[in-house]
């Protein structure tokens, strides 16, 4: 059996994760190819030409990539968000697309809480800051990351509330000591810290802007470890211009990063490159899960984590 699995990661996995992925694939009797830190789309197009399976991170799998991958059967996004994969193009070619839900969530949740402390303490510069204890942490979408942020927020003594358009059962929240609120408006209106955990979809793109941000309490901080695309940047700039108490921290630079830095100083911060899932643990968890899912798919036809069913 001469199946070939390509690991294509513009932002590479930790070495331990790559070694673990290679072992799983080769132990199953398949071949591994590695394309890391590529700088040009042409490199990816060439590498996928003879791949039967593909492991990616935020790498863009466009219709062009799908077209170039004549023998491709499965793409596994080692991570949660699959907005970087053209699902329609994959589905049209009968290619199975999966993610590895939950595998890198703890890394992202820890970063979200760390970002709150960073902003509460003037970005680690001198001056009187504030504490998270006793503040209201509002979680927008209660999936794998949202839940972990909620539990960690509780441990820090925060008052945790959450809204998820797809979870109607209050018990899901109550099990973590988290209060369910019934609308997005109610969530933002109470949020000293608003932690975003929504995916980037046609419905959510540019959905967080002036109206929601200006409804937040005095001194509130918006924390974005989800996607830059869900933010209406012009709306956020307008809100933070009108309200000099509001803060925004994001794990991936907005298009308007330079303007925001200049206008808002210490009220704004963006990581230079998305780092939420950049821990050895998350790389190992998500990478090995991806490899195992591919082997399982080829050996048994298991499509449990397929996102384009
Ligand atoms: C995810 O959706 O899993 C995270 O955003 C991590 O993305 P990354 O693999 O590009 O770090």
Q: What does this molecule look like?
A:
By secondary structure, the chain is of the alpha/beta class. It is 38% helix and 17% strand. It contains twelve helices and twelve strands. Strands 8-7-6-9-10-11-12 form a seven-stranded parallel sheet, sandwiched between helices. Helix 1 packs parallel to helix 12. The longest helix has 21 residues. The model has no long low-confidence stretch (mean pLDDT 98). Bound molecules: 3-phosphoglyceric acid. The site of 3-phosphoglyceric acid (3PG) has 10 residues, from loops.
Order of strands across the biggest sheet? Answer: 8-7-6-9-10-11-12
Estimate the helix proportion, in percent: 25-40%
Bound molecules: 3-phosphoglyceric acid
Tell me the overall shape: elongated
Distance between the termini: 26 Å
Number of strands: 12
């Amino acid at each position: 059996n001469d199946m070939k699995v390509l690991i294509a990661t513009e932002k590479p996995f930790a070495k331990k994760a790559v070694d673990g992925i290679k072992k799983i694939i080769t132990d199953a009797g398949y071949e591994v190819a590695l394309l890391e830190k590529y700088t040009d789309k042409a490199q990816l197009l060439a590498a996928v030409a003879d791949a039967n399976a593909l492991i990616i991170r935020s790498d863009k799998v466009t219709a062009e990539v799908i077209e170039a991958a004549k023998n491709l059967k499965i793409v596994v996004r080692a991570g949660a968000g699959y907005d970087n994969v053209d699902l329609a193009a994959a589905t049209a070619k009968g290619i199975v697309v999966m993610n590895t839900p939950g595998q890198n969530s703890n890394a992202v949740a820890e970063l979200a809480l760390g970002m709150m402390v960073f902003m509460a303490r003037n970005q680690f510069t001198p001056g009187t800051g504030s504490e998270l204890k006793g503040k209201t942490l509002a979680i927008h979408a209660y999936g794998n990351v949202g839940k972990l942020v909620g539990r960690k927020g509780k441990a820090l003594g925060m008052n945790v509330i959450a809204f998820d358009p797809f979870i109607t059962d209050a018990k899901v929240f109550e099990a973590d000591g988290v209060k369910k609120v019934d609308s997005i408006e109610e969530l933002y209106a109470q949020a000293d810290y608003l932690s975003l955990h929504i995916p980037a979809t046609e419905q959510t793109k540019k959905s967080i802007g002036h109206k929601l941000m200006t409804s937040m309490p005095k001194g509130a901080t918006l924390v974005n470890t989800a996607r830059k695309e869900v933010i209406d940047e012009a709306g956020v700039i307008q809100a933070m211009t009108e309200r000099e108490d509001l803060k925004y921290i994001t794990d991936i630079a907005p298009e308007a990063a330079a303007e925001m830095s200049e206008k808002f100083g210490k009220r704004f911060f963006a990581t230079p490159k998305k780092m939420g899932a950049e821990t050895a643990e998350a790389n190992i968890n998500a990478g090995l899960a991806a490899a195992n899912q591919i082997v399982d798919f080829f050996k048994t036809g298991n499509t449990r984590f397929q996102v384009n069913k």
